[in-house]
Amino acid sequence: MTQNFPAYDLSGKRALITGAAGLLGVQHAAALLASGANVVLTDVAEDALMAARDSLASEFDGGAIDVRVMNVTQPGDVHGVAAVLSREKKRVDILVNNAAIDPKVKSESASVEMTRLENFTLEQWNLEIAVGLTGAFLCGQVFGSMMAADGRGGVILNIASDLSVISPDQRLYRVEGKPENAQPVKPVTYSVIKAGLIGLTRYLATYWADKGVRANALSPGGVHNNQPAEFVNDLVSRIPSGRMARHDEYRSAVQFLCSDASAYMNGQNLVMDGGRSVW
Known about the structure:
The chain is α/β, with parallel strands linked by helices. Helix content is about 35%, strand content about 15%. Strand 4 (about 95), helix 4 and strand 5 (about 155-160) form a beta-alpha-beta unit.
């Protein structure tokens, strides 16, 4: 691929991915490995992180894969990983802010009422904001500063969502027979975090632009991942392309946004949702 499309070649570059053990985190790492980058997988879940490493190692034999347990909500963790990589002469050229708490759609849940705005606790608000938004700020602050400091620049990619530009349709999550005050909903934090990431992207894009640091966002649509058939059918009816995304369908977009193929793109939000947000 890199021979035919040299602008996508990331050979010699190192990318750090947060939330790398998740469904899309592994895919983002795979995309960057396929373009020749070395990757640093970070996550708070050590067992899942090691499983992600093993899966990627089997797909990309010989790929340079580093793993670091890191809690993005803890400044000490983020600074600690940055310090270790610096000592090891492993410069981070690309930061992918992917860590998030994303409630999964299930057919039944004993605690779904807690996601409702009326009952949403400040504790849960603070936790989800800390992971999805504050974590991106901390990582952008630490690794972005390092990219800017040596004059070599870099790329920051924030993973948002189509719900960064549209409101969740709460009808998708309704469960027949449940009383109104117990109906599950997409939590308020999800929309706030994803919209906030777009603001953070624009801020970072201009802050270090003169130092060669670019920042963009990728807003994926819904990814098919064994959700209940009724939910899938309802969601697909709202998508012009007539389907949900495959789990590996965002790889090329990540390669584009993290490489020189998008060298003149800065501060933008690439929405890939099958057209849902324009219907």
